[in-house]
Design goal:
alpha/beta; Rossmann fold; seven-stranded parallel β-sheet; 7 strands; binds NADP nicotinamide-adenine-dinucleotide phosphate
């Protein structure tokens, strides 16, 4: 399997890279600062892993990444849009304190960038075997599950990513590309925090089981890492 993972420098993206190479997959690991992505550099020496410079909010960086990947493969089987941000200053997420620039930055990274990245890599992905576009979402993107306030930009960004995933599933069906939104669960990473319920290993093991099982009839669905479906 030829896999491209965005935001692979740490957290869930790094664990995805680790588990994929351990399975023998060919991995393209996107990192916005490859020179400081030491664990990826170590994996690159041991396995079939290429560290790709990729800032998902920078269209020049995306174009350069497509060129780099194209020199190493003529197709991708799986593209995982994993990179995302969650504002570090909670005040910016509180109604009354919201700042447009901060909200737009979250929407750019978490919603617009996955669409633009998917578009840029689509020629490679649509040539893959059982091609799959995996948009890493969150249960916080569920409108039906929104029984709390706050976290406005992050929740909006993931709800909109869910909508994009559903629309792309239709756009890409004629090219046989499967598109899903996938919630990794609450995971012990910089974003999830130390008290999260899952280790990265547990979450990613589940994510890979879901990815392995996908067929075209799953396209346009909103799964969690255990293979259950979320309400939109
Ligand atoms: N952890 C959870 O509990 C949880 C729950 C639900 C959903 N998720 C989702 O799971 C995914 C991974 O989250 P995580 O917990 O692993 O987060 P994390 O530990 O904060 O890691 C985020 C990753 O995204 C990268 N990134 C951020 N902005 C980027 C950009 N503009 N271009 C390229 N890469 C960028 C970061 O790179 P740098 O190292 O360069 O900053 C880092 O590799 C995200 O989509 C997140 O929303 C996580």
């Amino acid at each position: 399997m030829r896999v491209l993972i965005t935001g692979a420098s740490r957290g869930i993206g790094l664990e995805l890279a680790r588990q994929c190479v351990a399975r023998g997959e060919q991995v393209f690991a996107g990192a916005r600062n490859p020179e400081t992505a030491h664990e990826l550099q170590r994996l690159a020496k041991l396995y079939d892993l290429t560290v790709i410079s990729l800032d998902v909010t920078d269209e020049d960086s995306i174009a350069a990444a497509v060129n780099t990947v194209s020199t190493k493969t003529d197709a991708l089987d799986v593209l995982i849009n994993n990179a995302a941000i969650n504002p570090e200053t909670p005040a910016y997420e509180t109604f009354g304190e919201l700042q447009a620039e901060a909200v737009l930055q979250v929407l750019h990274t978490n919603t617009v960038a996955p669409l633009i990245v998917a578009q840029a890599f689509m020629d490679l992905l649509s040539k893959g075997a059982n091609p799959r576009l995996i948009n890493i979402s969150s249960d916080m993107g569920s409108i039906a599950g929104r029984s709390y306030g706050g976290s406005h930009s992050y929740c909006m960004s993931k709800a909109a990513l869910n909508m994009a995933s559903r629309g792309l599933a239709h756009d890409l069906r004629r090219r046989n590309v499967i598109v899903i939104a996938l919630d990794p669960g609450w995971v012990q990473t910089d974003m999830g925090g130390a008290s999260a319920s899952l280790t990265p290993h547990e979450s990613v093991s589940g994510i890979l089981r879901v990815i392995d099982s996908l067929t075209l009839k799953d396209s346009g669905k909103y799964y969690d890492y255990r293979g259950g479906q979320h309400q939109w």
